[in-house]
Structure formats: C-alpha cells, structure tokens
Amino acid sequence: MQPMTTETALQQAAAHIRAAKQIAVLTGAGVSKESGVPTFRNALDGLWSRYDPQQLATEAAFMRDPKLVWDWYEYRRGMVRQAQPNPGHVALAELQRRYPTLRIITQNVDDLHEQAGSTDVIRLHGNIAASKCSRHCQGSPTLVDVSQITWEHEKGPPPCPHCGSPLRPDVVWFGEVLPHEQLSRAVILAQIADVMLVVGTSGVVMPAAEMPHLAKRNGAVIIEVNPGTSEITALADIWLNGPSGEMLPRLLEVL
Ligand code: OAD
Ligand code: ZN
Q: Range(s) for CATH 3.40.50.1220 in the chain?
C-alpha cells in the first residue's frame, strides 16, 4: 500500500466502488462503537471490566457458571437495546441502495445494520437479542421467546420450556461452528467480490477474518476502514484511516 492522503484514499476507493459489479462489506465491532456498543478488544468500563470476553464467551464458561455468563449477556443486551445506528451504519445502508447487489457480512450480534436499513445481512455470529436452548432439544437452534417466561432471575438463566435446560444467548461462542448457511454465503461472496470493504474489525477471529484473504486471493480490491491498524491492514489496497461514522459518509459524498 502506498502512503496517501485521506482525500486521495477516498477518491481511489470511490473509483473502485464505481467500477465494481459485486461489492462485499465485512463489519466488526468497530462499526457499532460510535453507537455506544463497546468493541471486544478494548477494556470494558465499569462492572465487567475485570472480565475478559474471551473467557466468558465459551460453552465451558457457561457450564461452569451459567448465571455469570447469562448476566454478562444481559448487561450487553442492555447496551445494545439502547443503541441507535450511527452514520457509518446509515452510509452502508445508503451504499446498498445505490449498489443493490452489495451484501454485508457482519460479525456483530447487534441489529444496527438492519435498523439502519441494510437488507439481507449475512450474520456470522448470531443475534444477541435471541435466546435458545443450551441442549438444542427441538433441533438446532431451538429459539425461545424469553419475554414469555417468568423465572427467578437471581438463580441464573431461564429454563427451556421444552426440556428445562438453561437457555443461552443465540450467539456463536469460541470453539463453536458458525451457522452453516451464513458461512457458505459469506465464502461465495468473498470469492466473487470485486471490492471488499473491511470495516471496524481487528481481523483476528477465524473464520470471519479469513474472508478478506479469500477475497484478495480471488482478485478483489480490499478497502479497510479503521482508525487503527489491524491484522487486515497489510493486506489492504486502500486504508481509510478514521472512524467508520466519519469515513463512510465521506466516501458516499465523493461517490
Ligand atoms: P474487535 O474488538 O476485535 O476489533 C474492533 C476493531 O474496531 C479494532 O480494529 C478497532 O481499531 C476498530 N475500531 C474502533 N473504533 C472504531 C470506529 N469508530 N470505526 C471503525 N473501527 C473502529 O472486534 P471484532 O473484530 O468485531 O466474536 O471481533 C471479532 C469477534 O471477536 C467478535 O465478533 C466476537 C469477538 O469475540 C463472537 O462473538 C463470536
Ligand atoms: Zn430445551
């Protein structure tokens, strides 16, 4: 990657987007940061700052202490419920209106892309707002509407109404496989994309982080949007070095 000014980088990114037949976007926690949802690899504030997400987001942690893990997700759900899409989400939704074949692959478990108006989002890591049986008793996933259950919150997660096992959030934990259909769609998209925008991800969690590599091997131009460097930066052809809530609206302006 040649060093270039932000203005030049934006112009070059816009030229590639204009020429593209298929645009893919891979997003991570950074795109929701300006909506007030903390990223994973920054210290959390307050109550939960002493817990490492990577230590809590596993099945082993849930088996060991279901209440601790459930309560941590309830805390994160609270933050997600309050969050509104920021100008970065809105710009991506607008970009899809202009280029209807554009698809977003997200690692995020919030629904801020959908709230901003993006459609057919490929969700690799699940949905934090939903809950499912930890034993998959009626098939995988056995989704349960928690608002219909009364239970003793001090004792931990609500019980599955079918089998009594503890419910858990409908997210992918470390060591678990990704939803098959979503992952295959992401792989196909990465293979056919002419341009991949990689927004707000550290690029360290596989297999999501494999997508930009796959796209690059198949000839795509990689445009990274991130205020810092990531594992993707070395691969990127263009780096829009700034927060996505600023850089994506600026990109739309020059398109
Ligand atoms: P990380 O927390 O690892 O990385 C967030 C990235 O966002 C970093 O590269 C930051 O530099 C960047 N960033 C910060 N502020 C930003 C802003 N305003 N605009 C754009 N970028 C910004 O989050 P992810 O890469 O999403 O997995 O993490 C990947 C996965 O690890 C998550 O999906 C989650 C986690 O464990 C599961 O839940 C399975
Ligand atoms: Zn069950």
A: 1-35+85-125+178-255
33 Cβ below 6 A of ligand 1:
yes
State the fold for domain 1-35+85-125+178-255: Rossmann fold (3.40.50)
pLDDT tens for 36-71 read 998 887 655 555 667 777 778 999 999 999 999 999
- Counting Cα atoms < 13 Å in the Cβ hemisphere of 46 gives 6
Please, where in the chain does CATH 3.30.1600.10 lie? 38-82+131-171
Stated pTM of the model: 0.96
CB of 171 closer than 6 A to ligand 1? yes
148 has a pLDDT exceeding 70: yes
DSSP helix/strand/coil, 115: helix
Cα of 144 from ligand 2 centre, angstroms: 9
Architecture of domain 38-82+131-171: 2-Layer Sandwich (3.30)
Percent of the chain exceeding pLDDT 90 equals 90
Separation of CA 10 from chain center: 23
Report the separation in Å between the CA atom of 27 and the middle of ligand 1, taken as the mean of its atom positions.
Answer: 8
Among 1-10, 86-95, 110-119, 193-202, the range scoring the smallest mean pLDDT is 1-10
Q: Please identify every residue annotated as catalytic.
A: 125
Running DSSP on this structure, what letter comes out for residue 213? H
Residue 65 in contact with residue 116, Cβ under 8 Å? Answer: no
